[in-house]
Amino acid sequence: SQQGEEDPQALSIQEGENATMNCSYKTSINNLQWYRQNSGRGLVHLILIRSNEREKHSGRLRVTLDTSKKSSSLLITASRAADTASYFCATDPTLTSTGNQFYFGTGTSLTVIP
Amino acid sequence: NAGVMQNPRHLVRRRGQEARLRCSPMKGHSHVYWYRQLPEEGLKFMVYLQKENIIDESGMPKERFSAEFPKEGPSILRIQQVVRGDSAAYFCASSPLAYEQYFGPGTRLTVT
After folding, report:
1. B95 has a chain A CB within 8 A of its CB
2. What does the pLDDT look like over B21-47, one tens digit per residue?
3. CA B86, B109, B56 angle in degrees (round to 5)?
């Protein structure tokens, strides 16, 4: 399977703490993206990191990519209750001829306790 | 600019009936993708369409499922003779050919 796999499956932290989620994948990729999904809602795109990038920041989000280990991490700093959601990584593998086709993992369920 | 619209949001069908799910992409987006999310699982790619063309349907079951994206109107994902295993959330995403895909709120299909 080309899908990304997130770890841990579930994470529960206190408000203000940092949350770290990891994603591993199996094939070479063009880029990797992180999405958030609130319960019962659609996905929201958070951040994209290209295969030639190692780290990217967006507000309280920090994403790293290690292509040698085929892994990525998403760090949410100073978490808030509103960050409670499921987080998915999605990979765009280089072998996909049509491009723009993403493979999603099963997600990490994050609960931030007020 | 309105986001990706999907309707209905919830759909209940009895086994053997047909389900039609609609997706209106964001304005200016000509690429549409359908994904299925089974309970407790991640999203799985089903089909990628451009206007009037199916580009990649490698993730779509060969029987009972079909998709279209006509020149005018929304993209339609059609499931004939639904079975209980079709119960899932179906998400549509659109793209202007950039890497980001913009997702709709999803349609939750329940087959009774």
Report:
1. yes
2. 999 999 988 889 999 988 767 788 899
3. 60
